[in-house]
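#data-curation
PF: Archiving a pair of folding outputs for the training set. Convention for this channel: one message per protein, sequence first, structure tokens after, nothing in between. First:
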Amino acid sequence: MKNKKITPFMMFNGKAEAAIEFYTAVFRNSEIISMIKYDEQGPGAPGTVNHAVFTIHNEQFMAIDNANGTDIPFTPALSFAVECESAEEIEFLYDQLKEDGQVLMELAPMHPVSEKFAWVADQFGINWQLNLSIG
């Protein structure tokens, strides 16, 4: 039986390339694997992302730009949970992700579960729950 996995797939409203470049710069062990853009043939606007594959913390993600012209927002109903390895890492990610975004929960202890925890919607609307476990 083939190994199966679930890959997060995000649809941006014309900002997929900027988001992917931001995430791969901010998160460790991240890279852009492939990015195909629309040309004049469409159906998306020329230069927007038709399909991209990238990694964040060695986990694969996919993304596209919305080709139908209707803005579809991200919501806090779905978020990515990131388990951080150190106080420095969670503070760095918190500072980077909240810039031009929205803080839903300030970086603070959340005893008895977390030494530090924060929930942020970044500048692209993606929600991140950052956690540094106790111990």
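PF: Second:
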Amino acid sequence: MAAAELDELLVADAGELRAWLLAHHASSPGVWLALTRKGGTLTSLTWQQAVDEALCVGWIDGQGRKRDEQTSSVRYTPRGRRSAWSQRNVANVARLEAEGRLLPAGRAAVEAAQADGRWQAAYAAQSEAEVPPELAAAIEADPAARAMFDVLTRTNRYALIHRLGSVKREETRRRRIEEFVAMLARQETIHPQRARPADGGRAGGR
């Protein structure tokens, strides 16, 4: 079902969300869940509370959008069989397990990820991600690519890191690095951005 076709869900708090998920997590395709904004009174449900309850039943958060002045909406759906795990959610699961909150459906999603390698391949959050050494070296060796890399937005820098991190075969990683360096040298980015090197990315411009 397309994200736009999902029903909206507004609950009073985390306890009410947990009750809803217990009743519907196995049958619902997902919902647009209302989360509180600063000063909001329609619901007390926060993003972290919603993430925790979703992980407990094997669901995952997705794209968000503004709902009104008091709330935002975030798409929550059952986790897909190929859905990647973040290191942050791996840590969240460990905490939920220690607190005795992880339910059978949530544990099944974890065990499936552990069995096929997605758990071990968990990616870093954008704020914590580091540029792989081999990518950094290749960019450093090309002045035009380095000039463009230096002005990348956080989103575009993370996109490079995440896309390379999802590749495990050495040959494929080398090819991906070459593609990224060439892309940067052409001043192209994965996501649109306006910033470009002040000197046009010419060699020796640093």
